[in-house]
């Protein structure tokens, strides 16, 4: 079933394949905040996506998704984006990591409605840092960036998006990613 945010369809790619080293090897995607796993929190935020692919090992989740694995496994976030990118057809692709505990459906709608004439629109975290893994991209621009980078294995996310015209939100806690246990405390 196609769903829409505003009047623009979008697909979602959720990156959930990291090693979670700073969490002591605990699967970060399954850590719960207020009784909901980090992965399910992001899946709820992207609920309006026409299609959703989660890149990482299959886990129990709150809604229907497709699954993909980066090639090679553990090849990094750019390899994850490449693995998930081919699953949809919508003109916009929302790329998010599973470690965004404060991201909401309203934040995702903000990404879609503010892309304007840019190649992408992303969120800045509370400290003002641009979060390329909390952003919406034009499918054509993302396809060109992936083609230009070649082999996506162990490539830099910053390098992947370097040639794109990106716009950014004001700082927001919605883009604060959880890299440590302390980051799971509401802001």
TrEMBL record:
Which Pfam families does the protein's record reference?
NTP_transf_3 (PF12804)
Protein keywords: Cytoplasm, GTP-binding, Magnesium, Metal-binding, Molybdenum cofactor biosynthesis, Nucleotide-binding, Transferase
Q: For this protein, what is any one GO molecular function term? A: GTP binding
Q: Where is the MobA-like NTP transferase domain?
A: 12-161
GO terms (BP aspect): Mo-molybdopterin cofactor biosynthetic process
- Which protein, by its recorded name, is this? Molybdopterin-guanine dinucleotide biosynthesis protein A
